[in-house]
Amino acid sequence: MKRPVVIALVILGILVIAAIATLSRGPMVLTKPEAPMPPNGRRIVSVPDMGEKIAPLPIYNVTMPEFRGITKWWNTADGQSLTPEKLRGKVVIIDFWTYSCINCIRTYPFLRSMHEKYADKGLVIVGVHTPEFAFEADPKNVGREIEKNGLKYPIALDPDFATWNAYSNRYWPAEYFFDRQGRLRRTHFGEGEYGESELAIRSLLEEDGVELSSMGETETMTPDFSKIKTPETYFGLLRGQEFMGTPGTNGTPVTLTASEKVEPNRWTAGGSWTFTPEYTQSDTAGAIFRFSIQANKLHLVLEAADGKDKMIEIFVDGIKTGEITINESDLYDIAEFPDAGRHTVELRLKDEGVRFYAATFS
C-alpha cells in the first residue's frame, strides 16, 4: 500500500475514534462562551452577545440532559416532573431565565406567542428558572412572576444550578432547541433572532410532517440597543466596579457622602450603607443614591430588607419625576429618557432598608 494512502487511513481512523469519544460523553451540552466570564462564572447576555444564526439545523448532541436538582414545577399535570423520556416525540425548547433580568423579561412576548401558536402542533417550551440573586430562588417569588406575566408553559425551579451545569450553560437568557428524538439542533444566547428561532421551530415541527404552510411568522419587537451607552451595573461587592469611592467591608455599615458631580456610568451614595457580596443596602431614612447613565430607560433590581413598603423619590437632573414603592423583590422601572442622552438619576430614600442589586437598561 502506498505511503499517502496509509497516512490518509490513519487520519481517518483518528477522526472516527474522536467522533465516537465525543458521542459517548453522555448528556452534556457544550456551549462556546463569547466573552470572559465574571467572577461567579455567569453572565446575563445583552446585545453584544447575540448568538450566531444557525441554519440549516445540524445535530449538535444526541442526548437531552436530565432535569437535575429541580425543586418545583409549574404548569405541568399536578406539578409532576418532566423528563427527557416524557418529552420524546415533542419539539422542545429549554429556556434558561431568571425573573429580574430585563433581557429575559423582553423574551416573554416571543415565548408566549410560540407556546400559543405551536403547542398544539407538538412544541413544548420548558422554562428553567435559575436564579441570579438569592431572592429568585424563593418559589413564592417565582410563582408570582409566572402568574403576573402569563407564562403558561412548563417551568422548573433550578435553585442550585444543577440543570444549568448539566447544560454547561453560562447565559441568561439561553435557549436550546431539541427535535422529536431529543437531539440538540440549535442554541441561541441572548435576545433577538426571533425570526430565526421561529423558523427553527417550524423546521423541526415540519421534519415529521406537521403542516404549517398556512401559518405566518410572528413579529416581535427588539429595543434599539445602539442607544444604550451604560453597561449593566452591579452594586454588591462581588461584581460592583462602578462605585465612586471606597465601599465598606462586607456586612459593616459605613457612612458615605454623595458626590455632587457623578462620573459617567458610575454611582455614588450618601448616608449609612452596608455592602455585601450581592447587594448594597441603605441603613437610614434620607439616604441618597446617584447614578450617571445614558440609555432610553433605567431599571433597578431592588428589595425591601424587611418586606415592608419603602418609599423612594425619583429625580432626574435635579427635577423630581415621581415616586415608587418598593415591597417585592423585583425589577423596577425607574426613569425613561426620550432623548437617550446622558442624565443623572437621584433616588431619595424615605425609608431605611432598601437593597440595591443591579441596574439594567432599555
What does this protein structure show overall?
With 362 residues, the chain is an alpha+beta fold. Strands 9, 10, 11, 12, 13, 14, 15, 16, 17, 18 and 19 form an 11-stranded antiparallel β-sheet that branches. Strands 2-5-4-3-7-8 form a 6-stranded mixed β-sheet, with helices on one face. The chain has a two-stranded parallel sheet with strand order 1-6. Strand 11 and strand 12 form a beta hairpin. The chain contains 7 helices and 19 strands. The chain has 2 domains: 27-222, Glutaredoxin; 227-361, Jelly Rolls (Sandwich).
The CATH topology of the largest domain corresponds to Glutaredoxin
Largest sheet: 11 strands, antiparallel
Strand content: 25-35%
User: How many helix segments?
Assistant: 7
The helix-and-strand class reads alpha+beta
CATH architecture of the largest domain: 3-Layer(aba) Sandwich
Question: Outline, from the CA principal axes?
Answer: elongated
Q: Would you tell me the overall average pLDDT?
A: 87
Assembly type of the chains comes to single chain
Corresponding CATH superfamily of the largest domain: Glutaredoxin
The arrangement of helices and strands along the chain is HEEHEHHEHEHEEEHEEEEEEEEEEE
